[in-house]
Design goal:
Blueprint: H1 56-66, H2 74-83, H3 93-147, E1 151-154, H4 158-169, E2 174-178, E3 191-192, H5 194-202, E4 215-217, E5 219-224, E6 227-232, E7 244-246, H6 249-261, E8 266-279, E9 282-290, E10 295-299, E11 302-305, H7 314-317, E12 323-334, E13 343-347, E14 354-358, E15 363-371, H8 382-391, H9 397-409, E16 413-419, E17 430-432, H10 447-462, H11 471-484, H12 486-503, H13 509-523, H14 527-536, H15 543-562, H16 568-592, H17 594-598
Parallel strand pairs: 1-2, 1-11, 2-8, 5-13, 11-17
Antiparallel strand pairs: 3-7, 4-7, 5-6, 8-9, 9-10, 12-15, 12-16, 13-14, 14-15
Helix pairs in contact: 4-6, 4-10, 5-10, 12-16, 13-15, 13-16, 15-16
Length: about 625
């Protein structure tokens, strides 16, 4: 039977049959040709380099030789070759480990790509969400930008008009909406303390007290039981022009409105604001009604509400706790000379103080304080009788006749005295200022000083900001405003409330002693008079100094009781005097905020960096 040539012999060079199955290693081709059908039957000469190839053929050949099979048998060779294919190729251990490492790397790469894809998907979703959110507010933002207004101010009184001019001078586009642009006629807001005048100079509005027949005020004169004392402002370290000013409130406001209107970027408009425009918790502007009863809207990134003590918008922006301890009855005395020129006059009458101060070269304002929220009716003559029979007998002789003449003219007006501590509710896009935000008893005439001081603080806070469109960031930044204003506002507020209670008559013996002690303490002169007057005038806004002077008055009153010979009754009155003094001032301090008054630097919002533009 003819033997067939084994399949692998086609790759071998011609060799003698005696050497075909020799035990030594033959020269074999590379492993890439082991199972490759040759393109030519011509034998190839094996080079020495081919000896480094894998010996797959030799392995199979040796196994066949050992098993006694003849390589010339075609069937046995083919079957043996097919069954032993898996063992024909020698596997290098390095190849195995390289394969396993590649497989492990592939798995890790797949996991990493899956995680990165998930993160990218989430990021893309976030971008889409933010894009959708931005598109929702796109109309509002475009509306704000197209409105051409940076700030909308509600009200053009002392605070609103001064603020409009200040922000307009800083380059802001300001729109002011005022209910009535005609000259106001009020019986309060007519005395500006020296501290307020300094703020007026800081704002560049000092010329607004010119050409309105304003009168210089250099201090106070106190009257009690036929005695009097004068208290002068400590103005020695200031320019000679620095002093208090008294004037017609309406004339002063009109001057500030006119000055604000001269700026090209300030627009004054008459209208009644009915509501604030709110979108997603952010104030976007106001809705108002014009003189023609048209309902319009004004949009701006920042809305500042300065609509006065009767504000109908404050409930959105603060938690109001308004008290009405008394009412003022106002009169104007004509062609009357006050006992002490250029001084405000305070008469410690029964049941409460009476004020006189000059508001023009020929007019003197008289304010009679009536405790409680109800006053005698004017129409039926009860008010005139009350003024003539109860008030007039307690006035200095120089003021008695002009007072009676003013009553007979019949121009009697009343005004409730309101007190409201500042209790803001920070709202993005809006801010409260002036009497809409914070009120105190007008006995000390400190309202305008506080308002102008607040404007200076707000101006300084807004100066670094070029863009105020980010309402939440701006709101967070402006929270420092409520703390920075505390030294001035809390000092004047606390002193006004405390002095009104001390100066008011009371049947309680301890309160009577406190009232007399206050008059005597201020009459001592020196630091006993200049210290309290500096606090009252806004020249020294220091709450701690206020508390020290207040309790110095109480201790002085106790000393008067115990000298020269103490008695159990006097000691008991002294204890009640101290207790009563604490009962007067501590509730006011609590309402103002102990931490804000005495430790403002510990408040997180005390110093906040302006938001990045």
């Amino acid at each position: 039977m003819q033997l067939h040539k084994p399949i692998f012999q086609t790759h071998l060079p011609p060799q003698p049959s005696s050497q075909l199955f020799a035990p030594h290693k033959p020269h074999l081709p590379s492993i890439s040709h082991c199972f490759h059908k040759p393109t030519s039957t011509t034998p190839k000469t094996t080079t020495p380099e081919s000896s480094t190839s894998s010996s797959c053929i030799l392995t199979q050949t040796e196994k066949i030789t050992k098993q006694g099979h003849s390589p010339s048998s075609s069937g046995s060779c083919n079957s043996s070759f097919n069954s032993k294919t898996a063992t024909m190729v020698a596997i290098d251990p390095h190849v195995v480990w390289t394969f396993l490492a590649s497989l492990l790397g592939f798995l890790l790469l797949s996991l990493l790509r899956r995680r990165n894809y998930g993160n990218a998907t989430a990021k893309d979703k976030g971008k889409v969400k933010n894009k959708n959110k931005t598109s929702e507010n796109h109309v509002s933002e475009e509306c704000l930008k197209s409105s051409g207004t940076d700030v909308v101010i509600v009200g053009a009184g002392v605070a609103g008009a001064a603020l409009a001019h200040t922000l307009g001078k800083e380059g802001r586009r300001v729109r002011v909406i005022e209910r009535d642009l005609t000259e106001p006629d009020r019986i309060v807001g007519e005395l500006l303390q020296p501290g307020g005048y300094l703020k007026l100079i800081d704002l560049g509005l000092e010329d607004c007290v010119e050409e309105i027949d304003a009168q210089r005020v250099l201090g106070y004169a106190l009257f009690k039981d036929g005695k009097n004392t004068t208290l002068s402002y400590p103005l020695e370290q200031f320019h000679s022009d620095v002093a208090g000013r008294s004037f017609h409130n309406g004339r002063f406001i009109q001057r500030m409105r006119e000055k604000a209107a001269t700026l090209p970027n300030v627009q004054l408009e008459q209208g009644t604001v009915t509501s604030l425009l709110e979108e997603n918790g952010i104030i976007k502007g106001v809705q108002y009604k014009t003189k023609d009863c048209q309902e319009l809207q004004a949009h701006a990134p920042l809305t500042i509400v300065c609509d006065g003590c009767f504000s109908n918008l404050r409930r959105t922006l603060c938690k109001p706790q308004v008290e009405v301890p008394s009412c003022f009855v106002g009169l104007i005395l004509e062609n009357c000379d006050l006992p002490f020129a250029n001084h405000g006059h305070v008469i410690l009458a029964d049941p409460s103080p009476i004020l006189f101060y000059q508001i023009s070269s020929t007019e003197v304002r008289c304010l009679v304080d009536v405790p409680g929220q109800k006053v005698p009716p004017i129409a039926n003559g009860e008010m005139a009788n009350y003024l003539k029979n109860v008030v007039a007998p307690q006035l200095p002789p120089e003021l008695h006749d002009p007072f009676i003449s003013a009553i007979d003219k019949g121009n009697i007006r009343t005004m409730p005295n309101r007190s409201m501590p500042a209790n803001p509710r920070p709202t993005p896009g809006a801010l409260l200022m002036g009497d809409a935000f914070n009120m105190r008893h007008p006995l000390t005439g400190g309202g305008m000083t506080v308002a102008l001081s607040d404007i200076v603080i707000l101006r300084d806070l807004l100066q670094p900001l070029r863009d105020i469109n980010d309402a939440p960031s701006l709101c967070n930044y402006l929270e420092s405003f409520y703390t920075l204003r505390k030294p001035v506002s809390s000092t004047i507020n606390t002193l006004a409330g405390a002095l009104y209670k001390v100066f008011s008559a009371s049947p309680d013996q301890a309160r009577k002693e406190m009232r007399q002690a206050c008059f005597d303490y201020l009459s001592l002169g020196g630091v006993c008079s200049t210290g309290p007057v500096a606090l009252l005038s806004g020249l020294n806004p220091c709450p701690l100094s206020l508390v020290l002077h207040f309790f110095a008055v109480a201790i002085y009153g106790v000393g008067r009781l115990l000298l020269p010979f103490p008695s159990p009754k006097r000691i008991w009155i002294g204890v009640r005097l101290i207790w009563g003094a604490a009962g007067i001032i501590f509730p006011i301090i609590k309402a103002e905020g102990v931490r804000q008054m005495f430790f403002p630097a510990t408040i997180p919002a005390y110093r906040r960096a302006p938001p990045a533009n």
